[in-house]
Amino acid sequence: MNTFGHLFRVTTFGESHGPAIGCVIDGCPPGLEIAAEEFAHDLQRRATGKTRHTSARHEADEVEILSGVYEGRTTGTPIALLIRNTDQRSKDYANIARQFRPGHADYSYWQKYGIRDPRGGGRSSARETTMRVAAAVVAKKWLAEKFGIVVRGYLAQLGDITPNAFDWNAVEGNPFFWPCAVQVPELESYMDALRKSGDSVGARVNVVADNVPPGWGEPIYGKLDGELASALMSINAVKGVEIGDGFASVAQKGTQHRDLMSMQGFLSNHAGGILGGISTGQAVTASIALKPTSSLRLPGQSIDIDGNAIEVVTTGRHDPCVGIRATPIAEAMVALVLIDQALRHRAQCGDVGEVSPRIPGMDVGAT
Amino acid sequence: MNTFGHLFRVTTFGESHGPAIGCVIDGCPPGLEIAAEEFAHDLQRRATGKTRHTSARHEADEVEILSGVYEGRTTGTPIALLIRNTDQRSKDYANIARQFRPGHADYSYWQKYGIRDPRGGGRSSARETTMRVAAAVVAKKWLAEKFGIVVRGYLAQLGDITPNAFDWNAVEGNPFFWPCAVQVPELESYMDALRKSGDSVGARVNVVADNVPPGWGEPIYGKLDGELASALMSINAVKGVEIGDGFASVAQKGTQHRDLMSMQGFLSNHAGGILGGISTGQAVTASIALKPTSSLRLPGQSIDIDGNAIEVVTTGRHDPCVGIRATPIAEAMVALVLIDQALRHRAQCGDVGEVSPRIPGMDVGAT
Amino acid sequence: MNTFGHLFRVTTFGESHGPAIGCVIDGCPPGLEIAAEEFAHDLQRRATGKTRHTSARHEADEVEILSGVYEGRTTGTPIALLIRNTDQRSKDYANIARQFRPGHADYSYWQKYGIRDPRGGGRSSARETTMRVAAAVVAKKWLAEKFGIVVRGYLAQLGDITPNAFDWNAVEGNPFFWPCAVQVPELESYMDALRKSGDSVGARVNVVADNVPPGWGEPIYGKLDGELASALMSINAVKGVEIGDGFASVAQKGTQHRDLMSMQGFLSNHAGGILGGISTGQAVTASIALKPTSSLRLPGQSIDIDGNAIEVVTTGRHDPCVGIRATPIAEAMVALVLIDQALRHRAQCGDVGEVSPRIPGMDVGAT
Amino acid sequence: MNTFGHLFRVTTFGESHGPAIGCVIDGCPPGLEIAAEEFAHDLQRRATGKTRHTSARHEADEVEILSGVYEGRTTGTPIALLIRNTDQRSKDYANIARQFRPGHADYSYWQKYGIRDPRGGGRSSARETTMRVAAAVVAKKWLAEKFGIVVRGYLAQLGDITPNAFDWNAVEGNPFFWPCAVQVPELESYMDALRKSGDSVGARVNVVADNVPPGWGEPIYGKLDGELASALMSINAVKGVEIGDGFASVAQKGTQHRDLMSMQGFLSNHAGGILGGISTGQAVTASIALKPTSSLRLPGQSIDIDGNAIEVVTTGRHDPCVGIRATPIAEAMVALVLIDQALRHRAQCGDVGEVSPRIPGMDVGAT
Predict the structure, then answer these.
(1) Series of mean pLDDT values for 10-residue runs along chain A (367 residues)
(2) Is the Cβ of D339 closer than 8 Å to some Cβ of chain B?
(3) Domain CATH number, residue A81
(4) Which of B147, B289, C66, C147 is most buried, most CB within 10 Å of its CB?
């Protein structure tokens, strides 16, 4: 199950410290222009090593297109993308090969397979998400060209800090994807103190997809929100997913939650753009909770491979808050769900034209 | 996409006011004893019409086994289950056939298919979940017999009321699945007032699966938590899913969140029994947010099929809080995910024996 | 794996002597008119009990539509079809419950599941194919309405008898689907003698799909011919599948086999309308070999459930040549493959318009 | 649909003249020893350029393992294999970029995608089958280690030449995989004359899998024979597939065809080791028809991209009989089907032990 999607299918492979990581995109519509350079922007947004607030590992993340593109356009055959790993330091992990780090996938992989690649977390490393971001570059481009869809996200909470204001223009101007520029120094101090302490912290990331047409999503088990949930939950460290108002809905009344309708637009967007598993034409909104990183310099009680009680101290290079770099990954998963549902929708409902009455996707402050 | 699961596959069919609802369970292990009577218990837990706090619709929910069982045991061929609908009142819905109810799937189905069955919500009705519960009776039985797994849930929040105490024994003793018996009168008064007001309210349901062995779940895209997320999000009205500490993880430090390990057991269960998408051997815990029902007697602004502005008032028979009956449905979805992952795990890793060191699944207060 | 197809998915259930057989069609395009009466024609073509040349079992094969159709049109939700079994004679099978019939699936089912339903062959009975034919009624109608596609077949060999002439108009005028009317008395005498002898015989059925547009089929593993092969091989008793010239290609030269091209049409159709797994716009042609029925009155050496050597004599009601009724089943499987590929094609390639130059699908004598 | 299999999933990518070809094997059982050197043997059996009877293209076919193997053993995570293309001569194809070769996939790809990579046939080239053979090296090894299964094939017909005798030991001793050593000079002369003539010829390849346990295969749509049919039909140039007696069954009587049973073994193997879609424990036998290559030096009538009538002459490097190299490819597809069914069988039926009575898989002359 290293394949994601039903019609636009992405299969990723590779370990953190193996020779390479890569993916195969199968089912991409033909005729889309794509060049190796186009992957750089989102890969850089996800990359470590750019500021002191993330892991010091520095990878070039240079994408080689191995197949599926001819004279600059997709041919409809599988697009294989390859990135060589260049900055492994496997010796950092020699001592943890026989230890289980609390809160990490070491123990569960070991119990499942009876073997694991301990170097840099092997397959369970966030390094794998590089290829999700790469694959989503193709998805985002098609969604934008065909439907004008824009998928973008931001950091909505860091530990207990929340934004004081919201401005999309601020988001890309700081290494945290934070929507309030004046708070950035506060975040930097917070992260500096955290890093010094040896501890880590959780985060929340929000994603908004604008211009999603109504009608996408397969009701019952292939619901748009159901697939967003698994897609987002599949990101390393994610422990919760919300659509629209999410858990706030628990304490709401029906009169508060239901989005009233007019021919000028919906009057609110508590639903997050999805009703009955199908998009409504409003912005699709999702929010995720990321747990604090488990790889800490602070010692923790654990066991080793022989069943001995031990104290684990993780040295290697790690992010004190994985949420900081999670924004492009969350966007990627949303984009991959959307393109897959778009193709599935036109497969089944390609005979249905534009249905009236259609409510415009008026922006009601999705954030 | 009315099929759920990869190896233990459940396909449901049927509309709220059609002649029947049913499901086909494909891939069930052979040799399991199952009788038509065994479905009654969980179906009654899910049924409406038992107390004044849920919809007044009264269905017998009598299950006919059409195939796949021979002399009381599953044969490995598809098990078809059929329930005839007996208490439809489609005339209640005559006026809403041309209206779109705010917060309901009317509009999104219409936009997707260009046609919809308006009687009782058609396919988008919670009536469909009856068959999920029925299918999960088979799953729960196999999981219990093979692994001693117990999947059970409870109502963890109703509007802004939360339990004052927790006792599994209380849960099945009241119509709300509430874990604190002394609060039941309070809940009844709350629901009476709510019903009288014509409004509805949201709820939170928690599910716990005990005795899940370590090693279940397919890392990356078929993660155990990822599949729980989509399974639970696919339940009508669900807007959020958490695994373990869920959104509380956002404000936690790594030293708080990581579950320390000893050969006597994990020392906590913030992870909800899943690390890297694979079960750890601890209790698997999940929590869901259910939005308040959208079908209200209180008028709401909307449009009709001709694009006219209207006020919608929903009369029919509806639940003022769908969360009340959601506990068996949530349990069902968790059980269906678990049996599917169990089969997938032994497919790939059937050659791997019990791996040492193995930590016992000590109970650390999963609730 | 009782589900067929990727987007137009048909799941069948039921045993030969169970209470009912049925299917669920998921992914059907919405808006297609369909009524219960429309299933009768093809089901009657497939039915036993109409002439002395097939099994004497007489089933009404009355279809009940349980879901997915509203006011006579498909809604896009799953269409469940149900047929009650009415003419079981399970007592006929009492003695074979503990015996393995040579050439039958008794032994292989027993080895797989450790349990089997012996009544009438249980799930392995050709009774199951009833629901394939029913599901294909929907597929054929959509293919005809959208593309003018006609899928039709005929008996191309019975034992060692082959047609002396070919006329589509003859095919539906005799119980054998034989394309040469003057040979029908010869076939009848042949079958009478065969039945009297207690033996059975094999057959060949050809299927032709006219008006399939170019471009359908997914190259490599989801090839149109590959999927036709598995679809046709999945029919009971089929031992071989050919596309176009099939095994005759072995002794051909390239200059003989390749279909020369002109803007007026292809000059021949050795390829059977498929190149590289993708339709060319010519008629799609396939041929299948059906083995002789294994259930014979003539005794055969075998074993029983206790490992004793026995002589098996099958009494029950059986077809001396299953190939006689196989024509509508083969058509059904071809139609199900085509609609699924049609939906998959427009999912991926919906942006590609009609591509020039396009060669007309000139008829070159597909038979 | 460039992925093959349900649980042991192989995704291939790459074009004939692209930078590389590769595959990702997902779902492989963990703990299997595998080294890059082990791929060489079967890849060399499939390779061109070794004798004058196949295409002159010479590829090193050096496999790089990019992931999924740690310290020489599979880890259960995806195994990515990469082979760089080293002997492309794309300029050979400059003139056919605007022409459609009769009998080739040029026209059908163009109609499907509106774009195609003409260099060496692009994705439709037999070069893609290299990765099938590579993936099957892993499958064959697991099948051999776990069950003693041996999958092997041979050329059973070349044009109208058939073997005069059968000896497995002869098969690997000549470049044709011919089972009768004394005929090899005859085949060489035949091929020399054919090559000189500029024409091509068809072939038949047989595959036998010994030691397949009873019980593998999913009845109805996931039948073992059904999946073999699509797997084998998916090989380039295949136009027909037979299981067991195949098309010979058409003229057989039931008393001839049915395989009588004894506790010492089946008395014959007309069924090809499969009944009701499930293996019986006998050798699984399949046979395929390969059409003559379409790329000929002899001119053929066709059209170009502008719709002009043209004469096509193919120069490039081509096989005059693709069947010669097809044996390892056919073996590969059979092995991939078997491992997938093996995993699926233990998923569903892992609780069923060895079922008695079990007939030994006595060899009855499968060839």
Answers:
(1) 96 96 98 97 90 87 97 98 88 81 96 93 94 98 98 98 98 97 98 96 98 97 98 98 98 97 97 98 98 93 96 84 96 98 98 94 60
(2) no
(3) 3.60.150.10
(4) B289
